[in-house]
Amino acid sequence: MNYVSSHWGTYKFSVDKNKKIKLDNWELDSSPTEFGLGLADAAIDNLRITQPHVRKGWLDNKGKSDGKRGQDDFIPISWDEAFEFASKELLKTKNAYGNSAIYAGSYGWASAGRFHHAKSQVNRFFNLFGGFSSSFQSYSYAAAQTLLPHIIGLDLYSTLDEHTSWDALSEECELILMFGGMPLKNSKVSAGGVGKHITKLGMKKCFDKGVEFINISPLIDDAPKFLKAKQVPIRPNTDTALMLALAYILIKNNSYDKDFINKYTVGFDSFADYVLGKKNNQECSPAWASQITNIPVNTITELADKIITKKTMISLSWSLQRASRGEQPLWMGITLAAMLGHIGTASGGFGFGYSSVNSTGDSFHKLPWQSLPQGKNKIKDFIPVARVTDMLENPGREFDYDGKKLTYPDIKLIYWAGGNPFHHHQDLNRLVKAWQKPNTIIVNEIWWNSQARHADIIFPANTALERNDLMLNPRDPTIVANKKAMKSFKNSKTDYEIFSGLAKKLGFLESFTEDRSELDWIKFIWNNSSKAHQKNISFPSFEEFWEKGYFELPSPKVEKIMFNDFRKDPINFPLNTPSGKIEISSETISNFQLSDCLSHPYWFEPYEWLGNIDKYPLHLISNQPKHRLHSQLDNAVNSQNSKINGKEPVMINSSDASKRVIKNGDIVMLFNKRGRVLAGANISDNVMPGVVVLSTGAWFDPDYDLNLERHGNPNVLTKDVGTSSLGQGPSCHTTLVELKKANKEEIVDVNIFKNPEILNKGT
């Protein structure tokens, strides 16, 4: 059988007599992602980059920035010319400034294939070239990546792997308190690929067994309807205050689990003193929290009664920590779970990211697999991933990260393959200015999106339909043979072919390829992976696997329970923290002496929030979209059909719309001091008053003359500042805006789905 696997699911494909590709849902997946079917049309649409290009202004300026990236025309060139241009720039930068002046950006979501994983290809190439300045963390959960090792002794990925399974929760848990909800749409995806979607089945199993769900979120839609979850509307970015008030009630009523606190945690007394107001004369009482959260006092006390009397799971969404002081709600959620005493049992505990990706809560145990060997980076310079703009603006400046003093490298060349900073970065107008600073920007890109339009040298890359690969996700029990469905579109190439061509120009082709073709590497990965687990799993031969199209690993017989061993025997199975226990107060973090992340969970007023309104009275939530993955497939049919008069829809409460004389379907303008954005009004009381929702991923479409984004990209409006000096993650959910009906003169057509101006060669 013929399959193609992606971050949003696995699909069967067929090719008709006219060589048109058709994708169909895989019959073994009970909850397929429909928008993935649009890849077949997107792979051949008019926005595909058909051959290499060079930006005219960069060429005219002899390989230096002219400050016009994003506003310029392009000249088509041959592959030989493109390799010549790029290799010369790489060598020139290396020889003049050293390898630390090269920032090789990649963000991993470009391909679910184990071989054609963009970041792996980038790392392998540049490590052989002598190294590069790199990034660390993920935009999805950067604050958590830094915090979790300090307080529970696990890195983020290990934490996700160890989550208590849906099966286990369904047997013993009575209440799942969802901070940030559990939006089912988010679970449609998973980094590394998806075989079968399991989240909906897991949720339903819990619900059918009588588990109660409570959705603490500004959005009703953050909980699937079939859960019949009680909605508790909360001001964005105030979850920590609510949790502190719940802790206050537990302490005041002497109803927290003292045995668990004494045996499995450290630092509770200091935290309790803070909650009771002994440190700063401010009790974290329900009345105090009500003023912050806008949740009635009686609702807070009712929640406390619930979590005391029921076996409770404290569920925390990834979105909570993508905000000002984003470390705090995660830390506080774990602290609250510790006070309830269910950690290490199937009856509750805490979770971080149930429904955020498909794999969280699966009973499958992670297995290590072979990946493309990447070598070692000789350059030690790195940045937290969300500090790209800071790096470009401030070469040589010192900054704080995880208790260390680091220095921003001086970047002269950016090479990007996989990911799109003009989607996932904040304050895009600021990024555009900083993006002008390097001498040269090179990208591997599929479509004429904003990433391509803000580059100097563009290599046209393939989609997943144009290459062979295998989906080998350590967190998914299905391995899929990703077979090539179509020839390379026009004159495009795979990332492997692109880097091979560059490696040849630079003199290390043999080291890069090891004389292996695409299929040779895929066999290498399969054979080495299967050999590693041959004792426990009976793998088919590669030929058998490739013919069938997939292989399902056996499921474990034991349900997963996070920290079960630690709960049973904390002496012999201590956590990897200084104390061996859960650190409610962390001496390590305290010793960092940070003003914005203290020794224990703490309420910090956000930079921008509804408790302190100035000119901009609405809180913008930029959540994940329903009809695409991040910005991927925004040009495909599902995403296009979701637009309102060509603009990305923005959800507005009816009371907020009425005040502004806005009707459903109107074109509106969202604005703040960082920029202006057009969107289509979707009036709905599924969002609380004072909050608007504009999903991420609309292709960035700036009109630089009008200082206006034409399409509905929320990251024009979001604030680009670190969560704290500990984690330095993105804080995109801490943003205030105003909104008005757009005047006729302000409404301009979306331009991003038209090709840029392509000049004749020699023009």
Protein model, in words:
With 763 residues, this protein is α/β, with parallel strands linked by helices. It folds into three domains: 48-131 and 371-474 and 478-534, Rossmann fold; 162-362 and 560-592, Dimethylsulfoxide Reductase, domain 2 (3-Layer(aba) Sandwich), CATH 3.40.228.10; 618-746, Barwin-like endoglucanases. It is built from 26 helices and 31 strands. The strands form nine sheets. The protein has a six-stranded mixed sheet. The protein has a six-stranded mixed β-barrel with strand order 24-28-25-27-26-31. The chain is globular, with a radius of gyration of 26 Å. The two termini are 48 Å apart.
Number of domains: 3
Q: How large is the radius of gyration?
A: 26 Å
Helix content: 25-40%
State the end-to-end CA separation: 48 Å
Structural class: alpha/beta
Shape: globular
CATH class of the largest domain: Alpha Beta
Lateral strand order in the biggest sheet: 5-4-19-18-17-6
Count the E strands. 31
Unreliable residue stretches: none
CATH topology-level name of the largest domain: Rossmann fold
Residue fraction in strands: 15-25%
Mean of residue pLDDT values: 95
Provide the CATH architecture of the largest domain.
3-Layer(aba) Sandwich
Number of helices: 26
Biggest sheet, in brief?
Answer: 6 strands, mixed
